[in-house]
Design a protein that fits this description.
Mean pLDDT: 90
CATH architecture: 3-Layer(aba) Sandwich
Distance between the termini: 30 Å
Protein name: Putative short chain dehydrogenase/ reductase
Pfam family, one: adh_short
Helix content: 40-55%
InterPro entries: NAD(P)-bd_dom_sf (IPR036291), SDR_fam (IPR002347)
CATH superfamily: NAD(P)-binding Rossmann-like Domain
Keywords: NADP, Oxidoreductase
Radius of gyration: 19 Å
Number of helices: 12
Strand content: 5-15%
Structural class: alpha/beta
Shape: globular
Family: Belongs to the short-chain dehydrogenases/reductases (SDR) family.
Number of strands: 7
Strand order of the largest sheet: 3-2-1-4-5-6-7
Length: 321
């Protein structure tokens, strides 16, 4: 924990460098959950670097101010380079409709940053019948990734630059205790177990967040395989990325859970959390990966060797499931 917090402090004051201006000129970049926090900061970075940016929002009316903010920060007011599209990650139908609209727009897509996510303290069921954290962070994100992967494969416009599909995860995916998952994998199933209100651990601050990110990591491992041709060449460069501890309102539900948390959350984020600007730079870094970086976990909390050591237990479990 000491080395972890030391690296968080380093990232708070020494940001990841950005690529040169114009690096994404002529490219189209999608950022989901782009109207606040890390998503909004990422939209600003990509727009400033020359990209046409598609921002998703659950409400077009509420998202308009975010779109204008990105244009102002990037200095591209009135150029028509920032677009808003509606997407509700609570609904499979919205994910499907969103991708269909993208196809009809004929804009093409060079980079997709699947950033949308939530933390819930209290049990909430999605309209699809799953616990909402699992629904948004795992199931809908996986569905969206699969739909975009197939479309991006067949709609490549630029044969010199390989498209990127980036899934935002968290260091917390290394935290769950998975020793009992094998028995849950049969009946009623792991997803159903974590979506049953009777199994909701009252008193925990973010019961399904780390679990949802681990399940997403498993899904992305399989998506990485689908992105590679039989000859070993890469159609789409797929990465997971952890922006680190960032001072955003993602933990707002945790802060509202008690008077103590209302005090501790902002203090903790203020001491160790980097800005959204700094956190979103890791999204840009992932979008600049070459084919040799396909499948890489982009983050700064661990070295590659440390991460492989910590993650090996979870990957071994995946192979036995």
């Amino acid at each position: 924990m000491i080395f972890l917090n030391a690296r968080r402090l380093r990232d708070k004051f020494w940001p990841e460098p950005l690529p040169p201006p114009g690096s994404f000129e002529g490219q189209t970049v999608l950022v989901t959950g782009a109207t606040a926090g890390l998503g909004l900061a990422a939209a600003v970075h990509f727009a400033t670097l020359g990209a046409r940016v598609i921002m998703t929002t659950r409400s077009l009316a509420r998202g308009e101010s975010a779109r204008e903010y990105v244009e102002q920060r990037a200095g591209i007011m009135g150029q028509g380079k920032v677009h808003l599209m509606e997407l509700d990650m609570n609904l499979y139908s919205s994910c499907v409709s969103f991708v269909n609209q993208l196809k009809q727009s004929e804009m093409g897509l060079d980079v997709a940053i699947l950033n949308a996510g939530i933390i819930n303290v209290d049990f909430t069921q999605s309209p699809e019948g799953w616990e909402q954290t699992i629904q948004i962070n795992t199931l809908s994100t996986t569905l969206l990734g699969l739909l975009l992967l197939e479309w991006m494969k067949h709609s490549r416009r630029d044969t010199t630059n390989t498209p990127h599909l980036v899934f935002v995860t968290s260091r917390d995916h290394l935290d769950p205790d998975i020793t009992t998952w094998t028995e849950w994998s049969e009946q009623p199933g792991i997803l159903r177990h974590f979506s049953d209100e009777d199994n909701w651990p009252v008193g925990q601050l973010d019961p399904n967040y780390a679990i949802s990110k681990l399940l997403l990591t498993y899904a992305v491992e399989e998506i990485c395989k689908l992105a590679v041709r039989r000859d070993g060449s890469v159609d789409i460069i797929v990465n997971t990325v952890c922006p680190g501890l960032v001072a955003t309102d993602l933990a707002r539900d945790v802060a509202r859970s008690s008077t103590l948390m209302q005090f501790l959350v902002p203090v903790y984020q203020g001491l160790l959390g980097k800005s959204a600007d700094y956190g979103a730079r890791f999204y840009v870094k992932a979008a600049c990966m070459g084919e040799d970086g396909h499948g890489k976990y982009v983050q700064s909390t661990f070295t590659d060797e440390e991460y492989q050591r910590y993650a090996s237990y979870f990957l071994l479990f995946q192979g036995k499931d």
